[in-house]
TrEMBL record:
One of its GO terms (molecular function) is alanine-glyoxylate transaminase activity. InterPro entries: Aminotrans_V_dom (IPR000192), Aminotrans_V_PyrdxlP_BS (IPR020578), PyrdxlP-dep_Trfase (IPR015424), PyrdxlP-dep_Trfase_major (IPR015421), PyrdxlP-dep_Trfase_small (IPR015422), SP_NH2Trfase/AEP_transaminase (IPR024169). Keywords: Aminotransferase, Pyridoxal phosphate, Transferase. Residues 10-327 form the Aminotransferase class V domain. This is Aspartate aminotransferase-like enzyme. Signal peptide: none annotated. PANTHER family: ALANINE--GLYOXYLATE AMINOTRANSFERASE (PTHR21152:SF40), AMINOTRANSFERASE CLASS V (PTHR21152). It comes from Phorcysia thermohydrogeniphila.
Amino acid sequence: MRTIKKRLLTPGPTMVPERVLEALSRPVLYHRSPEFKEIFLDTRERLKKLFRTDGEVLILTSSGTGAMEAAVVNLFKPGDSAVVVVGGKFGERWKELCEVYGVRPVVIEVEWGRSVNPEDIEKAIKENPEVKGVLVQICETSTGTIHDVKGIGEVLKNYPDVLLIADGITAYGVYDIPTDEWGIDVAITGSQKALMTPPGLAVISLNERALKRLEEVETRSYYFDLKKELKNQKKGQTAYTTGTSLVVALNEALKMIEEEGLANVAKRHELLAKATRAGVEAIGLKLFSERPANGVTAIYAPEGINGQDVVKIAREEFGVTIAGGQAHLKGKIFRLSHMGYVDIFDVLTALEVTEFALYKLGYRKFSLGDSLRAAMEVIEKC
């Protein structure tokens, strides 16, 4: 049967609400106009509320990786050292960015699917007292694993010269994260994840400690010059032409998040994650992560089945796009997103298409509908 609808259930880009699409379709604004200045300043304030920070929040026209790069090049000098947690594809990206800009990465290797122990962070700092920062993911998207960033922040209270720089690209808008309270000096996210906006914008927050470091480090980037951006964005402008339509769309998405309430947004994601996990386990599948995140669930493919085939059948035969594994996990896992503009019926769709794909691939150690029943029981109890 030919499907007539496309459903996007990947951990980025994610589905975009109709309200946000409508905002995106409005006439393009000139990035130096008073009208855009008002929207831009309002968007920055709404982002501060999302991050729960009293610090500065900057909007960059780039993917989330652009903000990661900006953090490294603006906050570290060549020859500086930084503790880097590598527990997945995006932890590796921190390491690679450090190497590009002459920052020595003190790598803590974590088995993919496991969470770093904050005590290991402290051990690395004691062994390398010259380190200037800790680079970590709040959620390692490639493995669907949440790291204990709150615990890391507690450790770093004893090391005032070490910045905590957290990639929250699939965490902000999924969890209610008190950035300042947790001791996160620099936090990063992107428009295309739980913020329910098309790809193209990155956000980076900097507290007082980070701003002090920013002034101490000589600028080495032209486009990602955060000093220049800070000076301009305080006035409601950007250093260069920004994605004006994307900012308008993001502004609308942030209004939706505020209307739902951060605490309620976090509860919804937690419930959807629990329902998804219950559903996949009900059909005999095993979760990949020992500390699963609430934005995306990583699942081992059954023995003898290539996870990429599950992804292919879901997309080509049922119009549902889910994600496969990355790097050495390609073919071994697949990932179901429940992030952003997602409700229980999207979760049920993801589970049912997983069942259909597995049936077609010969895995039939369950009855059709078992995953839905388990997920619905979780929802019913809440």
